[in-house]
Every structure is written in structure tokens, then in C-alpha cells.
Amino acid sequence: MRVIDLPGEPGGHAAPITAVTWRPDGRRLATCSYDGTARIWDTTDPARPVPVATLRHRRLVNGAAWHPTDPDVIATASADKTAVIWRLGTGPVTVLARHTDDVNAVAWLPDGTRLVCVSEDGRATLWDTGTGVFRTEIGGHTAHCMMVSVSADGRIATVGEDGLVVVTDPDSGAPPVTRRYAASVEGCAWSPDGSLLAVARDDGFVELLGPELATVLSVRACGSAARTVAWAEDGARFVAGGYDGALHVFSNTGARLATIREDRVWPRSVSAAHGRLAAGSFGGTPYLFDLDSGAPLSSSDTRTHGPNALASAGGHLFVGGDSGVLLAVDLDDPSRARAVGLTDSPIMSLAAGDGLVFAGTYSGEVLSWPPSGAAPARLGAPVPSLALTGEGLIAGTYDGHLVALDPATLTERGRGESHGGSVKSLAAVPGGFLSAATDRSVAVGSLSRRRTLWEHGNLVNAVAFAPNGMVASASRDHTVKVGRVTGEQRLTLLGPDESVKCVAILGDDTVLAGSYDFGLYAWTVDWSDPAATLRSGRLLAEFRQGVSCAVAIDESRVAVAGWDGRILIVENTAEGPVIRHDLAVADLLAGAREAVPA
């Protein structure tokens, strides 16, 4: 397993914050990050949180849970397939390492001697924290198990991408209580007295459920996915974090009390304690708010520049990332770049052509550069994908919508048939476009008429097209599929042992794909020898974090970027793909011709 190796940031994390959790006394906050660390912050002065400890994993840290009675003990959950029990000031006490996939969340039982871990393999497992001994499996999901919460009386609730909610009492021997939703459920939290279970659904609803999982209250929290939920200590209020970039505060009777919006808040995780609300961010420090007024107490004043999107046109490579800065790299001299502070929201997608660059943001906007006077299109959900086609600028949203925009005015022209999940990637083809989504499908066609080209075994992260008609798609199922846009000649390329995040086609027969295992791989497609696809691709380069995005510059060059801020330009040669340029976003920003936000 390759280990995250990002430069240290003394004032905060070096990558976005994935999770936050207050210690019960409200004087310490734990934050988890894509940089492979959990940090402990002294929040005595909430206007100036001070980092006091760093806990390091090999991969990104997904969650943390404070011990119920010992304020110096905390458990962390990581994509390195471990959960670790730490004593602050001492180090790791116990490592729970018998997990087959990423550990997404952990929760203590009230006795403080047992810990529940949930992971991407769908399992929920119970462990003895003193000895590290596996005790039992307490339930399972048919898709990723995303969150766990334990009530004051020891009942365990787990939720997952399969829409299943499971409540188990490990000490009573009673059969589990279950309920299944049509939408993915990624957040859950018991009320302080254990009488209500709040669940956050991918369709934007938060429901409060009784002990037998009957609905007590249902509220539409946001127009996009509701991803997390937390209670205030008195149980009178709960807070939902939505992928509309906002925090939504409700009374336990369903009255909306406040909506808190900040462009750089990442409400993948929220936590409330002592009248304060904490939320994750796309910067290196957490956001803190006053729960009663919604007023900010401290903001994320640092920016991380991990690249999420690439596009190429007019002799330039365009790079967009977490900071909202757009980089325009001169392909004749890749050491030269121009930097534009385009937006305060992270850039998730790019498309370029006809002298314009279009950016889709986490806040749900589509913007153009250079400024044309067109007001940003506001689509109401994050925009992970863009493509310029004959029907205009096509935007794919987190909610699964396909929206056609006029490239000149950014006004909406129409909407097409939706996917059953987030549209992760788009690529223009003659007469239409390809789309790849979390519903596992790759589709092709026009805005109004589409057909499924093929499906993967898990969500599809990226799709690419080459002028010779070849299509390639990258999936969380660890594979790359290649075929023709006509649907003929399909092969499966075995990838690394982790999710394949991005894909590009180089020349006529070379496929490049980047993975969450930090590797960039290359395959030469041989249509006459399907058995050759059973061999993994050749490792072309190693990054220090996951490989995030790729784009064809022309038929002989591809650009690939990683969340470590590294950008490679790969050229096709008679001997195979060769790395011609190895660039660093930090160096490009330092030498850029325009000032960028600090």
C-alpha cells in the first residue's frame, strides 16, 4: 500500500477536511482529512482554533470518535483499512486491522471497551478495544456501509449506499430492526436520549425514526443530497449537511431554524456541542459557527490546491481544483502559467473551446472565463462534469441531471433523461456525448435520446473518447472497460486493487488510467487477444496521493493530475507512453502572472 506523502502544513491540513467531531466538553475538536491525518484542535477560543496534535494514517482519514468517558482517547477510521485507538500525548494504543476495505466510520459503545467499525465492504464489526480482538459481525449491507451511531443505551445503527438502515442491540440478542429506502443513506445520528434516529438521505430528506424505525418526522433538508446529520445536546435541534454547500438547522418538530452558507464549507460532516457547530471544509482548517445565530466563529483561512479537473484548448492546459483558482498552463512552455481566482468554491469540472473555459463548481454554478458578461448558471447541486457538444454546453450534476446550457449566455436550453445517480464524467462524441454515473452505467446519445453502452460492477468515475471511436471508462470496481461507441468490441482491463478514478486514451490503442492507489497505469489494447486484458496495466508513474483527473491534449499527448498537486504530460512514442513534463501546481502558482488568493 502506497502511503500519502504530502508536505506538512503547520497551521492546518494539507488537503480538504472529511470529518469533524467535538469532544463532549466542547474544548477539543478532531478533524480528519484527505492528507492522511487527523488533527486535534484546542477550541478554548473558537475564533482561533489551535492544532495541538496530529495523528497519522497511511491513507485518508474518514472519521473519528471520542471515547465516552476518557477525554484523552479517540478512535479514527481510515482508507488504509484500519481503525486505530489513540491516547493523546502517547500515540496508538490498539490497531484494529482485520478490515478488507476502507473503514468509513467508528463509534464507541457506552461501556468504552467496545468499538463498532463500518467499512466499504458493507460490514459492521464489533471489536474489543483493549485487546484488539474481533468480537462479532453485527450486520451487513449490500453496498458500502457509510455511517454508524450508537445510542445512550447501546443500540447500534448503521446506514449504507444500499438504502438500508439497520438497528442492532448487541447485548439483548434480539433480531435486528431494518428499513430500506430507495435512496442511498450516508448519515445517521441518535438523539441524546436515544428516542429518535435521524437519517440523512441522498434525495435531500432527513427523517426522524422511532425505535422500530417508523417515520416520526420527514423534512426536505436541501435540494441536493443530505449527507450528514448531528444533534444538539438538548435534543431540541438537529443539523443536516447537504451537498448544496449549506448547513440546515431544524427543530425536532421540523421547523427550519437557519440555513448557513459558506462557499468553502464541505458539509460531508457536521458536529454540534455547547452551542457551537463545526463543519468540514475544502481548506486546511475547519469552520466553526454559533449554533443559535449561525454566525461564523472561525473560517477556513487556508486554501488547498488539489486539482480536480483538466481541460485543453488553444495551446493551453487548464487546471481547476479545491481552491477555486483556474490555472492556464502554456503547453509550448509548461513552466509558464497564468492563475485566475475564478471562484471561492472548489472547481469540480472543466470544458474548453472557442476561446472560452467553462468551470463547474461544488456550489452548483457554471462559470465562463474570460469574463463574457454572462451570469453564472445556478444548477442547485455540485457540477462534477462538463462537455462542449453540438447541443451546447452539457452539465452533469450531482443529482443525476443532464442540463444543456447556451455557451454564450449560460442560460438553460433544456434537460435530458437523468441518470440514477451523480453524473461523474462527460465526453463529446460525434452527434452527442458520453456520460458516466454512480448508477454504474455508461450511456451515449443526444440530450433527449440516450442508450446504455455498458455497465460496471460499481459506480463509474470517468469516461473518455478517442477520434477512432474508442471509448474507455474507469470504475470503483477496479476495472477499466474499453469498446466502441457503436457498442461493439468490448474488453475489460484489470486495474489496480483500488478504485480507478480517471481515464484517457492516448493514440489509437493506449489507455491511461489513474487510481486511488496513487498509480498511473498504461495498457495497450489488443482486440485480437482478449486474454491479455487479464494482466494489469503497466505502472507508468506513482503519485503521493490519489490520481484525480486526466484529459487528452491531442492524439499524441495526455495530461494527468493527482491530489498531491502533481501534473504529468505523457506523450505517445513508438516505444510506448513517455512522461515529457512533470509539473507541480505549487510551482506554477508561485510563478503565475496573476496573484491568487492566499
Description:
There is one protein chain. With 598 residues, this protein is mainly β. It folds into two domains: 17-298, 7 Propeller (Methylamine Dehydrogenase, Chain H); 307-590, Methylamine Dehydrogenase, Chain H (7 Propeller). The strands form 14 sheets. It has a four-stranded antiparallel beta sheet, with no helix packed on it. A four-stranded antiparallel beta sheet has the order 5-6-7-8, with no helix packed on it. A hairpin with a 5-residue loop joins strand 13 (145-150) and strand 14. The protein is globular. It starts with 16 loop residues before the first strand and ends in an 8-residue tail after the last helix. The mean pLDDT is 94.
Q: What order do the helices and strands come in, and which of them pair?
A:
Blueprint: E1 17-22, E2 28-33, E3 37-42, E4 50-56, E5 61-66, E6 73-78, E7 83-87, E8 91-96, E9 103-108, E10 114-119, E11 123-128, E12 134-140, E13 145-150, E14 156-160, E15 164-168, E16 177-180, E17 185-190, E18 197-201, E19 205-209, E20 215-220, E21 226-231, E22 237-242, E23 246-251, E24 256-261, E25 265-273, E26 276-281, E27 287-290, E28 296-298, E29 307-313, E30 316-321, E31 325-330, E32 337-341, E33 347-353, E34 356-361, E35 365-369, E36 377-378, E37 385-389, E38 392-396, E39 402-405, E40 412-415, E41 423-429, E42 432-437, E43 441-445, E44 450-455, E45 460-465, E46 470-475, E47 479-484, E48 491-494, E49 500-506, E50 510-515, E51 519-524, E52 538-542, E53 547-554, E54 557-562, E55 566-573, E56 576-584, H1 585-590
Antiparallel strand pairs: 1-2, 2-3, 3-4, 5-6, 6-7, 7-8, 9-10, 10-11, 11-12, 13-14, 14-15, 15-16, 17-18, 18-19, 19-20, 21-22, 22-23, 23-24, 25-26, 26-27, 27-28, 29-30, 30-31, 31-32, 33-34, 34-35, 35-36, 37-38, 38-39, 39-40, 41-42, 42-43, 43-44, 45-46, 46-47, 47-48, 49-50, 50-51, 51-52, 53-54, ...
